[in-house]
Specification:
By secondary structure, this protein is an alpha/beta fold. The chain has one domain. About 45% of the residues lie in helices and about 10% in strands. It contains 13 helices and seven strands. Strands 1, 2, 3, 4, 5, 6 and 7 form a seven-stranded mixed sheet that branches. The longest helix is centred in the middle third of the chain and has 21 residues. The radius of gyration is 19 Å and the shape is globular. It starts with a helix and ends with a helix. About 35% of the residues are buried.
């Protein structure tokens, strides 16, 4: 009776927060978009290498993504100290002072972005202003950190965000603890997207290419990649592509720090994976 009650309670909880176990998964992104007008939006079975960070770092198992590298280190050694991880080295070495540095832009100038400072670098699809985005980024990180850091004293020393350094040692420790927990769970139970809702990606496109920027679930993606998953189901958010025309007419461009030229440069950075070249030198 207790087990039946637990299953019914779990089912009710999923309905309340909008998680559906029966979402269809397709390999063709266009079919996903066409079916997204339905209430139960289908999932896109995406290659791991096609999921990237907002500054163009792939989640491929073979990439220089420091979060994937850290998870691979934890798979080999679950007792890894956070100071011996690629994450720690990344946070120590990658401390961008402005958006130009965050987007690894050393060949073209984002003159209009240099004044956007740490800790939040407004992405071109955002409808927030820079201050709002920064507050959102920090609040989201603190909420996630408190799930693994229980000590009030340590919580008071949680500084920085998980996308770049500098971060406090407790923040880096929190990241490692989250990855450890995820890897343990995935090894024991496998991946079930219905437990925490689907991983979401932002679909972008210009005239020649398509990109899928991680929106939420970055820890899960890094752990899954490290464990050898080559494809995973993700939800497009929004449900159709944001093309460069939309970005150039959006608030980040019209009243924010972006310009049409800098958006063209952003697509150049994504296409050429400029960040991975920098990380190779940074983490080697």
């Amino acid at each position: 009776m207790t087990e039946i009650f637990r299953k019914n309670l779990k089912s009710l909880y999923k309905k309340l927060i909008g998680i559906n176990d029966d979402l269809k998964v397709y390999d063709d992104v266009n079919i996903v978009i066409l079916n997204s007008v339905r209430s139960n939006r289908p999932l896109y079975n995406i290659k791991m290498e096609d999921i990237i960070t907002s500054n163009g770092i792939s989640y491929s198992n073979e990439s220089m993504n420091p979060f994937v590298m850290t998870c691979k280190e934890l798979v080999k050694n679950n007792e890894l100290h956070y100071k011996d991880s690629s994450c720690y080295k990344f946070y120590e070495q990658f401390q961008p002072k402005n958006a130009n540095e965050y987007f690894f832009n050393d060949k073209m100038e984002f003159d209009a972005l240099k004044h956007i400072k740490y800790p939040g670098f407004l992405p071109p699809w955002s409808i927030m202003n820079s201050e709002q985005y920064t507050k959102h980024l920090v609040a989201t990180n603190r909420k996630e950190d408190r799930r693994v850091i229980k000590s009030k004293k340590e919580r008071n020393n949680l500084n920085g965000v998980n996308l770049f350094g500098p971060v406090s040692e407790i923040k880096c420790k929190a990241e490692i603890l989250r990855y450890k927990s995820l890897i343990k769970s995935l090894k024991q139970k496998g991946y079930d997207q219905s437990l925490a809702g689907p991983i979401q990606v932002i679909p972008l496109k210009n005239q020649t290419d398509e990109y899928f920027i991680i929106r939420n679930g970055r820890h899960r993606v890094a752990a899954l990649s490290a464990l050898g998953y080559e494809k995973i189901p993700v939800q497009l958010s929004p449900s159709s592509f944001i093309d460069e025309t939309i970005l150039k007419s959006g608030p980040a461009c019209k009243i924010g720090p972006w310009s049409e030229t800098s958006i063209d440069s952003y697509f150049y950075i994504l296409k050429n994976r400029c960040g991975e070249h920098h990380l190779k030198n940074l983490l080697s």
